[in-house]
Amino acid sequence: MADELYRLTLHAAARGLRDGTFSSVELTESLLDRIESVDGRTGAYLTVTADLALEQAADADARRASGQDGPLLGLPIALKDVLSTAGVQTTCASRILEGFIPPYDATAVTHLKNAGAVTLGKTNMDEFAMGSSNEHSAYKPVCNPWHLDKVPGGSSGGSAAAVAADECLAALGSDTGGSVRQPAALCGCVGLKPTYGRISRFGLIAFASSLDQIGVLTKDVTDAALLLGALAGHDPRDSTSADEPVPDYAGELNADIGGLRIGVAPEYFGEGLDPQVGDSVRAAINNLLGLGAAEREISLPHTAYALPTYYVIAPSEASANLARYNGVKYGLSDPQATDVDEMMARIRGRGFGSEVKRRIMIGTFALSSGYYDAYYVRAQKVRTLIKSDFETAFQDVDVIAAPVVPSPAFDLGAKLDDPVAMYQSDIMTLPASLAGLPCLSIPCGFVDGLPVGLQLIAPPFAESRLLQAARAYERARGELAAPVKAIDA
Amino acid sequence: MTTASATAYRVVIGLETHVQLRTQSKMFCGCAADYANARPNTHVCPVCLGMPGVLPVINREAVNHTIRTGLALNCEIPDYAKFDRKNYAYPDLMKWYQISQYDLPLCINGHFDVDVDGATTRVGITRVHLEEDTARLTHVTAADGSPASLIDVNRSGAPLMEIVSEPDIQTPAEAMAYGEKLRALLRWIGVSTANMEDGALRIDANISVWPQGEPIGDVKVEVKNMNSFRALGRALAFEIERQTGRRERGEAIEQETRGWDETSGATRSQRTKEYAHDYRYFPEPDLPPLHITRERVDALRAALPRMPDQVAADLIQQGAPEADVAELVQDRPLTDYSLAVIGAGASAGEAVTWIVHEFRRALNAQPNKGAAIPISPAEIASLLTLRANGSVSSTMAGEVLDEMFATGKSAEEIVQARGPQISGQDELLSIARQVIQENPQAVQDYRDGKGRALQFLMGQVMRITRGKANPRAVSTLIRTQLDAES
């Protein structure tokens, strides 16, 4: 077993540490070796902080030796490079932040460190979290561990691939329109995006502030509950973080779901959905019904408008959020420039990739005088309608079940020249993001040897219920008959 | 400076006043807001530097200060307010957007009465909103002779309030009076130092000139860079001349921003309409909307001091001269002090005039300005009583006051030690005669009708008596002597 410690879940590894079967240093070394041997093929990490990780592991072992314990003590976790890490380069996979070493940790990172977790490094992503395939990283693409010619999804593709390739026990990601759930589905791991405001955004480098939410990518539902428990809570440094009590997610996890009302909306099963993906999701819903849950048909009539709504609101906010990257204070600099305007123009011209520039231009246009009412204001109104669709539905159901992505992972490069086709990959994850709802993706089958996910969506702050439903399904589902991952072949 | 042609035109002026608020910390972070004597870039943190991933947190006291100001300006305080992002790219703006308030400001629909030469004008207050200040750029020449710009981020994120007036102002004098009275009000309620020289108070003006009888249009000129009320008056007078001239020549007035140049005494075009900013305002997603409860507004209202206008009306009614009262209420600590002196038995008329002139002179001469006044109001009231009943002359009262400041002794003690005032006719008469004899030029001047000559001769008598002479008696004596001799 000792040679494959990297394959453990968080909770299994915690048991091993607790029982003294192995130390955190041994576990961390196992993961660093694994990264060493496979990351050249997955491209999941941008930065590996081996020395820091071993130091944290030794510290965790010392804490444990002195009698301390905790759900994350000594467990190695990866961080999406959108999270600020004090003293460790944080780039958002963008050239413009190359060399940027923040002096502060994101609140989520602080929570992990305080819990004694080991941080392995920073994972690859689409530049500034803008993308659905991870091909928009300025440094290198990420390959899907199941099939190295396929995309891992995005924008948390590095985190999802790192979990799937056993290069970490779990990873933090961020989800703005599906960036945790979609790569989790394509890489066959669990991806949880909590309610907007459940986890502090302080130190999460902003893409679209009203949508961004830190999420977790794990090997199973129990791990997602453990991690969420460590991260959730109000933060005085984030005025949009919720001052709601944090339940014992892990402790409540195995509740019976008999009588749970599951909403199924035809809007998520229509045109564009790969029939095999649809079958797989349908089978998963039946699985839940077998546990005593009840199915209710619901209607979410504004679902079709989520895509255009999202692609007005998110770029609008991004156009302001990304304005600060001008080369004056950090990141890229340009000593050749002769005046400040030229310097700032050259830095932004060189520092941002094409997808980021496209979204800055879309957002700038949507907010311009004369267009603001037609785009931004209208999009906000539609967002309210989408939200109220869910509110209505949740009067009759407890969770909503849907696919995550219309089809399994596509070939690297397949959609790179067609932004709209790329955007459509998010069509089933956008509505819950716009409504700020907690949602997750859990593996429910394979199509053509590639993982498929089931999406569950719950009312605001009902993460516990969401995790209970997912865990019940996970138990009923058992081990999926999975092909061998390319990375393990 | 209003010319004859100005009467054929109507002048429309609105003012936008930026006020730095006096708070412990900055608008959205924990950095100390008072950076006055700090080295550049020492009052900074990731938030006010606009670093990646950081978030703003609203300074509650800054919101309170803004509501206080709104209440003092008779504004409505709506239940809901929100912050918005104002986008523009400039190196002094750390995030390339400013957190400001666009369509739901904290205060709306107020008014402010301004007096010029006895006439009162009511100036509407459109809104008072809250935003963050920018960093400060200094343009220098580098060692190699090339131009360089230095950024000091200490000011970035300092709480800044903007007071926007309706275009109800018609003359430079009204604009100056508005500014001066507003400065006094802001100090009165304690929300700002309102010092123009430190940039804590900055006034921009929107001005346009229209032919009388014709409708007022949309085009206006924004004038910036006035660093004093005098500069505000001069810049507006210049613009009235310039715009009137263009109207008379049949030339159009262009919508533009102009900067006041103190040295040349002229405004210069900075930005025309085609280069006007599109600020792309949208709601700040990092800050939830503000719900301002009635309880909060009521508590702030109840804790406000009486407004200077009310205090002034009371004092005038009690017999204090209007001009002195107007002067006094510029200064709240001194006003509070005067009210205490009056409360201790002094007459309002005498106390106000004496405090505005004599007392303030002595106070300003104290080495540690700004410290609490070391003399109790009761002591001053008793000095004023001694002065009123003729026990000390005005001149002597001033000297006694200086001694009170210097020694901390009471007025009674000092007067007793000095000996009583000289009112004896014989003694004063001989001194007056001596002075008249020694100053033939002043005597001649007096006879030529120069009023100041009498003051001079009186001063000589006072010098000889070391201020102990009763001035009224001296004045009568000298005049009798001189008039008798002519």
CATH topology of the domain at 2-259 and 443-448 and 479-488 in chain A: Amidase signature (AS) enzymes
Gross geometry of chain A: globular
Helix content of chain B: 25-40%
Mean pLDDT of chain A comes to 96
Please state the CA-atom Rg of chain A, rounded to the nearest Å: 21 Å
Largest sheet of chain A: 11 strands, mixed
Our measurement of the CA-to-CA distance between the termini of chain B, rounded to an integer number of angstroms, reads 46 Å
Please write the string of helix (H) and strand (E) elements of chain B: EHEEEEEEEEHEEHEEEEHHHHHHHHHHHH
CATH superfamily of the domain at 2-259 and 443-448 and 479-488 in chain A: Amidase signature (AS) domain
User: Which regions of chain A have little confidence, pLDDT < 50, spanning 5+ residues?
Assistant: none
| Share of residues in helices of chain A | 25-40%
Residue fraction in strands of chain A: 5-15%
Portion in beta strands of chain B: 15-25%
Strand order of the largest sheet of chain A: 1-3-2-4-6-5-10-11-9-7-8
Please give the radius of gyration of chain B in angstroms. 28 Å
Poorly predicted regions of chain B are: 1-6
Number of DSSP-assigned strands of chain A: 11
CATH architecture term of the domain at 2-259 and 443-448 and 479-488 in chain A: Alpha-Beta Complex
| CATH class group of the domain at 2-259 and 443-448 and 479-488 in chain A | Alpha Beta
Structural class of chain B: alpha+beta
Secondary-structure blueprint of this entry?
The complex is a heterodimer of chains A (489) and B (486).
Chain A: H1 10-19, H2 24-42, E1 45-48, H3 50-65, E2 76-80, H4 107-114, E3 118-123, H5 157-164, E4 170-175, H6 181-187, E5 190-193, E6 213-218, H7 221-231, E7 261-264, H8 275-290, E8 294-297, H9 306-321, H10 340-351, H11 354-367, H12 373-393, E9 399-403, H13 419-423, H14 430-434, E10 439-447, E11 450-457, H15 463-477
Chain B: E1 9-20, H1 60-72, E2 80-81, E3 84-87, E4 97-100, E5 107-116, E6 119-132, E7 136-141, E8 147-152, E9 159-165, H2 172-188, E10 201-211, E11 221-226, H3 229-248, E12 256-261, E13 266-272, E14 282-283, E15 290-291, H4 294-303, H5 308-317, H6 322-328, H7 332-343, H8 348-364, H9 377-388, H10 394-407, H11 411-418, H12 425-438, H13 440-447, H14 452-464, H15 471-485
Parallel strand pairs in B: 11-12
Antiparallel strand pairs in B: 1-9, 1-10, 2-15, 3-4, 3-14, 5-6, 6-9, 7-8, 10-11, 12-13
Helix pairs in contact in B: 2-3, 6-8, 7-8, 7-9, 8-10, 9-10, 12-14, 12-15, 13-14, 14-15
